[in-house]
Amino acid sequence: MQSGPDFRHVAWWVFDLDHTLYTLDAVQQAAMEERICLFVQRHFVMAREPAWALQKRYLREHGSTLGGLVAHHGIDADAYHDFVNDLDGLDLSHAPQLRTGLARLPGRRIVFTNNCGRFAANVLDRLGVRDLFADIVDARAMNFVPKPLAGAYQSLVARCAIVAERTALFDDSARNLVPARALGMTTIWFNNGQGQSHWAIPDSARHIDHETSDLASFLQTIRI
Predict the structure, then answer these.
(1) What CATH architecture does domain 12-24+93-221 belong to?
(2) Is the predicted pLDDT of residue 1 greater than 60, yes or no?
(3) What topology does CATH give the domain 26-88?
(4) CA angle at residue 165 from 159 to 168, to 5 degrees?
């Protein structure tokens, strides 16, 4: 008999993309942040330091840099994503252990990302798991209201006809789990040391049901 966490109530499995279904090393993370900064520099014709500060302020206040750029400046999201996302630079390949873990999950698997849907689909292809996912809820599907803002979760629930109490949400950002838990979802913090996993939240035990540093292994040991 399996002794892992009990997920027998779950019918919707919702996964963040960046830093969750795939991870970055420190060099790749730094390169991605520099591309975002360079986009801001070029768009506003400003020096690196104020561009970096603006980028990080929008990330804190809006959940993503793009969220702030769209809300305040009407940025073309496709142009932003085309500039910022470097699929080849991720050096992704098929992830058989992740596929095994995902494939055993009963119900619908959904990607829920502040990033671009086209990029997400390409990442899933590189990982060899795209066929396992029923939908991708991306920045455009959220009307550019990103996690952790409440509107993002409303878009997810409405688009995918989700029952929150029967849904599990996996994310590296603990703050993205707070609204999900408030809706009744089971929350899993992917604490991998990269991405936003270092962003602490107050009273984390109220918002995080489970924690793992190895997503593929976790998926293979839970009770379903």
Answers:
(1) 3-Layer(aba) Sandwich (3.40)
(2) no
(3) DNA polymerase; domain 1 (1.10.150)
(4) 75
